[in-house]
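Chapter summary example.
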Amino acid sequence: MKNTCLLTSGMMLGALSLYTQASDQPNIIFIYADDLGYGDLGCYGSQVNRTPNLDRMAAEGIRFTDFYSASSISSPSRAGLMTGRHPIRMGIHAVFFPGSYTGMPQNEITMANALQDAGYYTGIVGKWHLGHMPEYRPLQRGFHEYFGIPYSNDMNPSIYMENNEAGNRMVNQDSITYHYTQRAVRFIEENQDHPFFLYLAHNMPHVPLGASPAFKGKSPHGLYSDVVEELDWGIGEVLNKLDELGLDEDTIVIFSSDNGPWLTEGPHGGVATPLFQGKGTSWEGGQRVPAIIRWKKAIQPGQVHSDMACMLDWFPTLVKLAGGKVPTDRIIDGEDISPVLLGTGKRPTQDFAYIEYGKVLAYRSGDWKMIVPEEERKGNFWVADVPAHDTVLYNLKADISEQTDVKDQHPEVLERLMKKMDAFKETLKDCPPPLFVMEWYTEMFTNQQRREVIEEAKRKGIEPKSGVTSDY
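The structure predicted for these 472 residues follows.
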């Protein structure tokens, strides 16, 4: 890319109007799915969802097998991605709702802040979910422009925002992915002459599910597959636009999911196969997610990386690759994995803490994972109850599905992980209290879908897996 200096008309709220293109600053596109399962892509073993574009991305870059989201639920996961810090350090234990009057604390430095300071034009298309009140919106957190839904698509009122203004139309669930794709492509076209950061945060496949006429009913495997296949189409549109504009060599494209699949939604919730459990749990299915990275200029194609890495790592990694500065006045939990991407080294450590609703419930170090005692976890029509358990230890390389507790055979490993967890907890002593008491709002259409899939299952003779048969 050549050096240029230009005035960009879309710059918002006093942002710098001059951008200098540096030849060593790659463009960055981060694509986030919502509630997509580990087993929902062809390149991760799916036999039901057709995902040729994501499979192509994996073939042209790196696919991670042991990559973790910062949380098993939405808002904390997104806070971790944006800051490189465990969300518990911000008091974000649960998700924000339309009735929430708080958001990610204003003293947090986001990836967008750091990239903007490094000379990038920054934009978000899609779901924000880190506070919808004026002081917490994307334009106040380092983004120059925003189009999307400020929270989950099952929350009322479901509206689009354009920068800081609410739009004048309600959201049609079937067209969300299509609209996001068109806006993302437009963003790339408008910013092709200077370094940009695009955060494309899809609302799908979070319930309620919706797909455009070109995809709805077209998969032989139901609505969830329709939705995933439209997401894959949208990613193909982004990749094709990069190719068309000659930006494909020097653009980092990352795809991942904010957490595991919402298994309690049954056929509308995706799969975590071969992992155990899903969204909202500290089992592998809750936080181990797909992660695919393509950077043609610097990443060797066709790689499968089996060491651990996590969503917190993207903040220090991408800021470093962009020539920016990682904050030194606060704890940054993520680690620079640019050596992994460039093939020059490994992630500095192989440790990870699983935190659910403000509690450290599990800890991984290397191949080993310890989970602390847990009371019975009730299921619903689609998911069986999980019995109460004492402390358990798994070797994840030998037992990816967490079925065989080996703590009695490896007491020294259990003791080592307990010490590591205790040391990590010591770093949390000054964390703020939770920002809010958890609330619950959900759209009527979501509950309608839930009833319909259960009624259809009963007609087919499918028996409930738990005595708790609904959650609406």
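To summarize the output: The chain has a mean pLDDT of 92.
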